[in-house]
Write a structure and sequence with these properties.
single chain; about 350 residues; mainly alpha; two-stranded antiparallel ribbon
């Protein structure tokens, strides 16, 4: 066999007629004798045992091109159609590949590559590796929904171990809780653990941002109750705040315009001002009490919500419906939170003007 049109796999130089060429008896790869002796093995020794056979340099780019093409394709889990890398939905059936902004199929390719690199580091042919392969072959394949959840869980909680994945919280695997909560998930997982251990929790976000935290976490009914209380108390407080401001202005004007005012008159004005301020302090006390109640019950209500919604999610077996369900009920709602803040600040003034 002549190799004048081929190049040495060791140094990359094209073979010439009088070159001393060594051909590997295992895979048929030709290379200069000096290149072979330099490594003391075939340049393709790593491929021995994989049915690799050298077919000439002209065929290698084609093989690489086919391999690259195969790696770039995203195979739809629903219909099997091959889609180009970067696709967010199947071109054939419309199956979405993204879940909370993560392309699940691309994430799987990335994780598979990491797993292959780890597997390559293990000793070939060891009994333990063989046993693991045998065990893996008997495992039940993951469903499309589980693959979505696993990929998302590894994004928001990259340090989650296999043992922690087996933990159950809210009557669900912990990874489902993490994915459902999505925003600040580890903090709420710790809160849920405390509650299941019989301990009470305190939610500072719900304390400082009553009633808006409930809209943020999609507890809309409770949020409406607290928003109604907030608006009602603000409406009731408007005339008292107005009266207190008028009393303050009258007091300051009287002191400035009458520097020789008697002490008894000053005390009378001060007492009138304090009497007008008292209802304002009652209003602030009521608002503070509502915030305390909110902070005490927020985590409990949210845990109940998460448990109920995840319980319904167990009945969904179709990936697209499952993704739509999670996007509707999980994570947070920034838009309605902003709308609630707007209404909470605008409604008291509007209502007061209507009934003035």
């Amino acid at each position: 066999m002549r190799y004048e049109k081929d190049t040495c796999a060791g140094c990359g130089r094209m073979f010439e007629e009088n070159d001393d060429i060594v051909v590997c008896p295992e895979c048929g790869t030709p290379q200069h004798r000096a290149c072979y002796e330099n490594k003391n093995e075939c340049v393709n020794a790593a491929l021995h045992g994989t049915d690799f056979l050298w077919k000439g340099n002209a065929s290698e780019p084609e093989a690489e091109e086919k391999t690259g093409e195969r790696e770039e394709k995203l195979v739809c889990p629903t219909c099997g159609h091959e889609n180009p890398q970067g696709a967010t939905a199947c071109e054939a059936c419309g199956q979405k590949f993204t879940f909370f902004g993560v392309n699940i199929l691309e994430k799987e390719l990335e994780l598979a590559k990491i797993d292959e690199e780890k597997a390559a580091g293990e000793q070939a042919g060891s009994h333990r590796a063989e046993q693991n392969r045998n065990d893996a072959s008997h495992e039940q394949p993951e469903s499309d929904i589980e693959r979505m959840l696993n990929a998302r869980a590894r994004v928001i909680a990259p340090g989650l171990t296999k043992e922690q994945e087996q933990e159950r919280l809210c009557s669900q695997p912990i990874k489902r809780v993490l994915v459902f909560v999505s925003s600040n998930p580890l903090s709420y997982v710790n809160k849920f653990r405390k509650m299941e251990a019989g301990k009470r929790t305190w939610n500072w976000a719900a304390f400082f941002f009553t009633p808006y935290w409930f809209f943020y976490r999609k507890l809309y009914k409770v949020g409406l109750v607290f928003l109604s209380l907030h608006v009602a108390l603000s409406v009731v407080a408007v005339p008292f705040v107005t009266k207190a401001n008028e009393a303050m202005q009258s007091f300051m004007a009287a002191v400035q315009n009458n520097p020789d005012m008697a002490q008894a008159e000053i005390q009378a004005l001060m007492q009138s001002f304090l009497a007008s301020v008292a209802p304002v302090y009652l209003h602030l006390g009521a608002m503070f009490l509502i915030s305390v109640v909110s902070a005490l019950i927020a985590d409990k209500l949210y845990k109940k919500y998460v448990t109920e919604k995840l319980g319904f999610a167990e009945r969904i077996t179709e990936p697209i419906s499952f993704s739509q369900y999670f996007l509707k009920f999980s994570s947070v709602n920034v838009f309605l939170t902003g709308l609630a803040i707007f209404l909470g600040n605008m409604l008291p003034g509007i209502i007061t003007q209507m009934f003035a």
